[in-house]
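Hey,
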Amino acid sequence: MVQEVEEDVSKREQWPASYCAHTDRELLLLSCAEDLRRRHHEQRPARRPLLLVPRNECGEPKMVCTAVCPTGFHQPELFLSWQGAATFVADHVQYLPLEDPVSLPQELCSPATVLHTQRGNCFELSVLLASMLTGAWYDAYVVSGYACRELCLGDHTSEDYAPWPEELPPQVSEGEPTAAEAPKYHVQLEQQFESQYLLERKRKELRRLEEIEEKKREEEMKALEALERPPLDELSGVRVHSWVLVRAGRHGVERSFFLEPASGRASPVRDPCYLGVESAWSHENYWVHLRGPALPEEEDYDLDDSQLWEALRPGPGLGAAVATSTPRFLLLSRQLDMPPSWSEPLLLSRAAYELRFPEGSKTQLYKKARLQRWAPLLRPDGLVAELTRYVDYDRQEPCQVVRRYRQREDRLEHSKTHVSSGAITETFRRGRPDFLVGHSHTEGRDQLQHERVMSFNHAVHLDNLCEVRLGAQEMCERFESREDRLYERCVTFAPAVEGQPSAVLSVTEKFYRNSEKPAWEDVASRLFALTNNTISLTYHVAEDNFTANWRTFKKPPGYLFGERFRFEPSMTQGYQADPTAPAPRMLHLFRLFEQQLQAEDRALFLVRSRQAEVVKILQQRESEIATHKLKISPFDVERNEEARQAVKLQEQQLAERLHQVQAEAQYEQLFLPEPESETQDPLKVRGVCLV
């Protein structure tokens, strides 16, 4: 790491004195660390050496505890949760594997330098993350130990990755039945006589087929595991690694866990990827694992337990940890306190925080997947993440592309594309003027001639529209929470004719049950068949009935031309589930027929309006895709050109106004003569003014 930051280091004028010199407390701490190193080597000669005093950027030996610099940042992401801090470190700093995977590093840069250069190995990333977590009042420690090859190399090609959860199951709308209730009465079906011998043979055959399928699946899984199994690691168990331990007890943490600084992921303390622990340290103390290098149990991370951990400073004094012969050194040893960090304060500018990744972008490879991420507002289309899934392990044949966007004017958030079929699913944030929140369609297809699904925010839509499904010859609308209980309208069209709108063949509307009406008056579905000029009504089933009432009306021939007609009994027919109920009167049927005729006209008008609305939305989407404008805050003058011009104009107007005020205030210059020289006599000037 030191060689990699030499160019950046040479640009800085000079290092602070703390980087190149030692205080008395630091010298005392180095002596204590040397004593701990010698004692560890004598008592445990089979153990590997400890990381105690590596060199810093200036080549000076520094105790690892003093490299931790607890810092609290003003960005909410970095101090409200450990997830935000861990994710930021993993994104902001480029991970560099150790040059020698089995040896401890000889250099350890300060967390300020790592944050500035955005590069570091596992130890430097762990120190940076521990500094941020400690500054956010977490009980965090840097751990030195051993891990598997994938963690040490930062290799995720053997892991599956699912960055965004799938769509949640649709919520049940108000008034919609959640489950089919068992009716009070039911029809007893005719008893079926079957041979028990044949049934037993059928069950045996099914079990045999299931066993064959299970065996086939097991063989496929074994073959897949053998294919995906990584090659054996010759250095397994001796690869040096560092990570962060977050102990329970602070900030709402109930159980201790590990944090991997290179990926930002949390894992339990018994994760098999971590193979052993040698030591741990914080800005207050240094602990040696006495039972190392084995991985401790979860309850064994009590660092105050002297049977499991040996501390550099076991209490207010060193006790038996320090043995000296000089009175001065003995006096200092009793007053040993961990000196403050020699690192510069951790500073994170707004530009660096918003840039997020090194050079603004980062690419990570996973099993059959590739994840690319960009800083917000870096790309003109607002793309911040793109996950490409592949069919093969070499990532040559893509099958699905998932994109995430931010700060687009069209409020597009996600886009999922299936490469083979060309199907595209778009998700929008709420707030669009057309209330669109979802759009599924096929790339390169005509507007109304192929299947597409549009989802809307029904809470603010004028019709409480929830979804529109379009096909070649059909359109289906779904509604939620309407006062008239309508929840679905399906329309069937005739085959399209070029240059003309498709004719409507039928319209079907379905309604939820209205408990305020009797079942024989509450319409469940309504069919307007325009081909045979009929209107069919089906009512809800009453609690004590098995069938539902229905009624059909036949429109007279002259109705389509606006002619007056006479309602005849032959124009309607129906069925009543209750034979004891009185027959409906002709006046009631005539008024019902008139209501349905009006409803048919209104339904046809709404269908044409919906088609026009869909066409308008599709045209708007074409324009938005072609321009993909970004919505930039007016307070962001660096990126918002209009805001920058407005501020510039305001400053110019303010300067002109100030100049005008100053010119008006200097009225006395009108009475003063022009100075002939810089050394003009003041008395002569006074005399001229008085003339």
